[in-house]
Amino acid sequence: MDTQILEDLGLSKNEVKVYLKLIELGPSTAVEVAKASRLHRPNVYDILNKLSKRGLVAYFLKEKTKYYEVVDPEQLFTLLKAKEINLQKLIPELKVLQLTAKPSSNVAIFEGIVGARRLMTDMINNTKDLYVLGVPKDYAKTLGEGWVKEWHRNRVKKNVWFHHIVNEDYHLYRIKLLRSMKKTSIKFLPKEYNSPNVLWIYDKGIVLNFMHPFVCIRILSEDASKSFKQYYKMLEKIALPKAPQEK
């Protein structure tokens, strides 16, 4: 079992240990839990009280002895929800701090898959139309098919149009998937214009995604955005409406 997940929810290592041990034991006294978990009794009492206050553990009296038991494990979701609520309160303050800080660089480099995902998420939060040019056929697989599918779901939910000119050898199943999505258009580069890399264009600027090594360069510039949108629309005129494999 990956106990790190419980620690990420805010439980200490010993709290996790007591919580899991109590699940195994069922209704038990603090003494029994201390013995089974090999922790000092005063510490176990303290931990059980903390878990009780968080709504994860309940207790009852039996012959004047206090017994503890774990409530429905789904109660753990309340910890996650509490973190989300606290984070929502904090975000506006962080944005104010960001506005008062020194201006960020107009050019930034993001390495690896995590960097690309971060940029893709940022783009759909800051544009009405997203233009993507020269997408290699295995790009979605590289980013993670499941992650890309969820990203598209969020994009459509945010009413962001996705204008897509991909390489002509793009996978047929991906073509069909994209054609089935709302707010999505797809065309194909003639074979002689196939690109090994990806160009993203959005309202705030552009992102160049190189595949080998996998790195993204973001340029924040409305002028660059306007220029490359014109370049995209010029290529759109020669782009193919269907891929060869669709015939």
Shape annotation: elongated
CATH class of the largest domain: Alpha Beta
Largest sheet: 7 strands, mixed
Number of helices: 10
Cα separation of the termini: 50 Å
* Helix and strand pattern: HHHHEEHEHEHHEHEEEEH
CATH superfamily of the largest domain: Endonuclease Chain A
Helix content: 40-55%
Oligomeric grouping of the chains: single chain
The class by helix and strand makeup works out as alpha+beta
Task: State the total count of DSSP E strands.
Answer: 9
- What would CATH call the architecture of the largest domain? 2-Layer Sandwich
Spatially, the strands of the biggest sheet line up as: 3-9-8-7-4-5-6
Strand content: 15-25%
Q: List the uncertain runs.
A: none
Q: How confident overall, as mean pLDDT?
A: 88
Radius of gyration computed on alpha carbons: 26 Å
Summed up, the domain count is 2
Compact overview of the structure:
The chain is α+β, with helices and mostly antiparallel strands and 247 residues long. The chain is 49% helix and 22% strand.
Mind explaining what this structure looks like?
The structure is a single chain. With 247 residues, the protein is an alpha+beta fold. It has two domains: 72 residues, Winged helix-like DNA-binding domain superfamily/Winged helix DNA-binding domain (Arc Repressor Mutant, subunit A, Orthogonal Bundle); 140 residues, Endonuclease Chain A (Endonuclease, Chain A). 49% of the residues lie in helices and 22% in strands. It contains ten helices and nine strands. The strands form two sheets. The chain has a seven-stranded mixed β-sheet, sandwiched between helices. Helix 2 packs across helix 4 and helix 3 crosses helix 4. The longest helix has 25 residues. It starts with a helix and ends in a 9-residue tail after the last helix. 23% of the residues are buried.
